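ok so for the tutorial part 2 we go from a plain amino acid sequence to predicted structure tokens. step 1 is just haveing the sequence, like this:
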Amino acid sequence: MFLIPEEYVGSLYIIFNVPNGQPPKYEGDSRVYDIPPSGVLVTQMDANEGRIESNNIQYFYVSNTGNRTPISKDSSLTQLNMPNSNAETARTLYGGGLGHTEPVLGCDVIYQHFTVGTGDSEQTEGKNLFDIFDAIKLKNSDGKFFDNMCPDRKRASPAVYLIPENYKGTFYIVYNAPKGTPAKYENGVPVFAIPPSGMLVTQAKSSAVWEENPPNWHFYYVNNKGDRTPIKGRWYDDIENTSEYRSSTQLTTFHANVGEVVLAKKCSAHAQLFAVGQVSDIFDSQFQFDLRKHLAAVLYEKVCIK
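step 2 — the prediction. this is what the tokens look like for a chain of 306 residues:
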């Protein structure tokens, strides 16, 4: 039994086998998946594998007062076979298959994914549609999603980032560059000193493990005297569009996964995007730049050895 907040439209995820997730719920012999307003339910229950007869599965919209309104389960075949149906006006569910992913090394996540909405418009036009990685981010904003779930997972390597005082917007680190800036360390921890240009090309290696906002990464503003001011704030996808967050004056950092950038034939760079400032600065186009538009001959010389 799937209970969905009334009028919810978009992606729905159920993430299974999470020890600190919601305890199992039942009505009679039926499992109950009580979807929260975020659209992402994290549950302690195992994935419900195997074939289930359709008459044993129920979907409901649930009002604030607890009233339940049935929702039908739809499919592409249903729409193809019934071209004159009311699929464009009636909200239905689509999908429901099990999937799994490894968002961090050594941690397998099993999930079930649906979308809910009217035919072509609400289910395909991007309204509140998101993938499993975004779903995990929604539930990982406090850093506790993986606690107890994957105790043996590999963690990101520690790092220190030194950013010129008052720098705002995006900056990049290009890793593994043979002729880049030599790697620097403090007590065995790599230190990345960002130049005023906002692009550091370094011989240092990137962390082999992706993790959302690792607790062992530390960001500082650095003035001309070398004094460091910690930057505590971290940017999270699930609250980026709230008016309170966007108007916040708290200094914030953001980072993306390391990606490959092709510079020339048989030459590519491993680069990572960062951003720093107040949230309004991070989203302000005047403080953003694209790595590809700032590639210079010196970068090729540092990264691509003939």
